Amino acid sequence: MVINHIKILSKNVRKNILKASLEAGSASAHIGGALSSVEILSTLYSEFISFPEKKNWHDRDRLILSKGHACLVLYSILLEKKLITKKEFLSFEKNNSILPGHPVMNKFKGIEFSNGSLGLGLSLGIGSAIALKKKQKSNKVYVLIGDGECNEGSVWEAALLGPNLKLNNLTCIIDKNNFQQTGSNKEILDIDDLASKWRSFNWHVVEVSGHEINELIEAFKVVTDKPKLIVAKTIKGKGLVFAENNNEWHHKILTKKLYDEAIKNLDAHE
Amino acid sequence: MNKFSKKINFYSSIGMRASFGMIMLELVKKDKNLMVLTSDVSTSAGLDRFRNQHKENYLEIGISEQNMIGVAAGLSNDGFNVFTSTFSPFQTLRCLEQIKVNLGYMNIKICMVGLASGLVLGNLGYTHCSVEDVGALRSIPNIDILTPCDGLELEKCLTAFNKSNNSMYIRLTGSSPLKKIYNENYNFKIGEPKKIKDGKKIILFSSGAIINEVLIANEILRKKNIFPTIINVHSLKPINKKNVLNFLKGHKYVVTIEEHNIIGGLGSVISEIISETDRSHKLYRLGVKDTYSKSGSYDYLKKLHGIDSVSIAKKVKSILK
Fold first, then answer.
1. What is the gyration radius of the CA atoms in chain A, in angstroms?
2. What does A82-111 look like in DSSP terms, one character per residue?
3. Which of A93, A145, B229, B277 has a 20 to 30 Å separation from B174 between CA atoms?
4. Do residue A123 and residue B98 have CB atoms under 8 angstroms apart?
5. A-chain residues within 8 Å CB-CB of B100?
6. Number of domains within chain A
């Protein structure tokens, strides 16, 4: 039941991503890395992240999209959650939009921080997690980072601090789609076994398939006294047949022809 | 001696960094949401007592300045009043991207205190001197840049942070003990430069502890019947242009004296304002002339870069010749 609901949400989110990419036209969109994160965020927003009434907004769980170029997956979820309107959603990358090609902080719309400069989100998440603990709030902080993003030294500064502060209200998820802008991780900067690295930094590490909803649910449910790191093994461009593991779709224009093909394909996989 | 005089004498005797630690001990008494973050510099920042006495308000980040700014922004975003501190080069350039995105772009408010800026650590070389900090930060919107000239002004800067809408960078300069510039209390407002000496014909703008050299130069000049107007530009950003323009009236010659590269700092601030006038003023910028010199003591470097009292007086005399 729950899994089915998340599957439907994931499909809608993929369709939203494609629609916004089509509307963006020649402005182009980061499609591959948004599609690889779909099940991760769909699962989180369905089962783990809750939004209170606006007057108690400070009592919300937090998702920080540190891999900010994947903003379309977040915008698509927020559209489904009715935090942003259809009109706002379709203004993606247009002049004067609140939804440019990297997220701009907009708390009541569900965008916690401005992202786009890689390697900044986990530090912000640590600050948020400390603040919630100090205020004795039970809300959780989730930070989604990319595997390519782990090239940034600042990720590792934050990775060292999290366990030192015993921040068990903090979960970092790595969308491990094995690619970055101009090639595979192996070609650009081989980051090898991320799970071992984070484990050696004293994080509680769980490895899952990032498209298997039941595995994601179980991983998010794990209770630990340490901060948690989920390595979600994903496929860049997942769900867009011609884009899967094809790094040309890191950032690309989606034509009407390919859009129609992609939607048809998604609908064929009920 | 009254309580106020005792306090400013005390600040003067311990220098800017130790004063910072003492002032934070006072501020935390009134603010349970105050947090101090450092990257392994509590001793250098005069914060050891704070660290021991206020464990709940102190967070050691380790030598990772980029992370420090991110964590500070996260805390501030959830309602904490956050002060960060480390040596000036690492408090600014080392984490400039985090400052731009977290504090500038998002306008999350924290107060950064840069220790030992300028040339005071000259013996340690230019990794530890800081003559680029103002120039780098000034191009980022939503960051106030303050350069207190003595302990009393530092207290005023730190106290002013609460009322400011922006993040703040407080640039600490000078050695210990530190000459006090102000012996009496005065009105301090962010953005409003203060006149220290009323003179004529030539006006000297300066900021930070180097003002002491300017005041000694003034004594030398008085003996030659030269009476410059002297302005303390404690706020490099924002700065009230109207005030500066008013001060400029009646002064043909303008000199800026700063412990910073002449590109990007006070000299640039004043020249930008003058460039919008009829340009009848003649501007001379004293400071580090876009170079990394050999290292040496504070006094040696001030002299080398022409911002010690004797060099300043000599320059003023030559301008008026």
1. 17
2. TSS-HHHHHTTTSTT-SS-SS---BGGGTB
3. B229
4. yes
5. 117
6. 1
Give B172 to chain A, closest Cα distance, Å. Answer: 26
Q: Which residue of A127, A132, A153 is in closest CB contact with B70?
A: A127
Chain center to CA of B93? 16
SS3 B8: helix
Phi and psi, residue A49, nearest 5°: -100, 125
Which run of H or of E encompasses B143?
strand B143-146
C-beta of residue A70 within 8 angstroms of C-beta of residue A180: no
Subunit contact B70:A153, Cβ cutoff 8 A: no
Tell me the chain A residues in contact with residue B66 when contact means C-beta distances shorter than 8 Å: 119, 123, 153-154, 157
Check B77 against A134: CB less than 8 A apart: no
CB-CB neighbors (< 8 A) of A133 in chain B: none
- Taking the CA of residue A105 and the nearest CA in chain B, the distance in Å comes to 7
B189-237 pLDDT, tens digit per residue, is 999 999 999 999 999 999 999 999 999 999 999 999 999 999 999 999 9
The domain B3-171: what is its CATH number?
A: 3.40.50.970
Contacts of A117 in chain B (CB under 8 A): 97, 100-101
Question: What's the CA gap between A186 and A183, in Å, rounded?
Answer: 8
Indicate the SS3 state at residue B256.
strand
Q: In chain A, which residue's Cα lies nearest the Cα of B61?
A: A161
- Most A CBs within 10 A among B33, B59, B68, B71, hence the mutation to make, goes to B71
Q: What is the mean pLDDT of chain A?
A: 96
> Is the pLDDT score of A270 beyond 70?
no
From chain A, the residues in CB contact with B61 under 8 A are 161
Q: How far is A8 from chain B (nearest CA, A)?
A: 33
Q: Convert the pLDDT of each residue in A139-182 to its tens digit.
A: 999 999 999 999 999 999 999 999 999 999 999 999 999 999 99
- Rounded to whole angstroms, the Cα distance separating A110 from B74 reads 16
Residue located via tokens 């939203």: A16
CATH of domain B194-320: 3.40.50.920
Average confidence (pLDDT) over B266-279:
92
Domain extent at residue A85? 2-268
Q: What is the per-residue pLDDT across B117-159, written as a single tens digit (0 to 9) for each?
A: 999 999 999 999 999 999 999 999 999 999 999 999 999 999 9
Q: What is the ipTM of this complex?
A: 0.97
Cα–Cα dist A105/A111, whole Å: 5
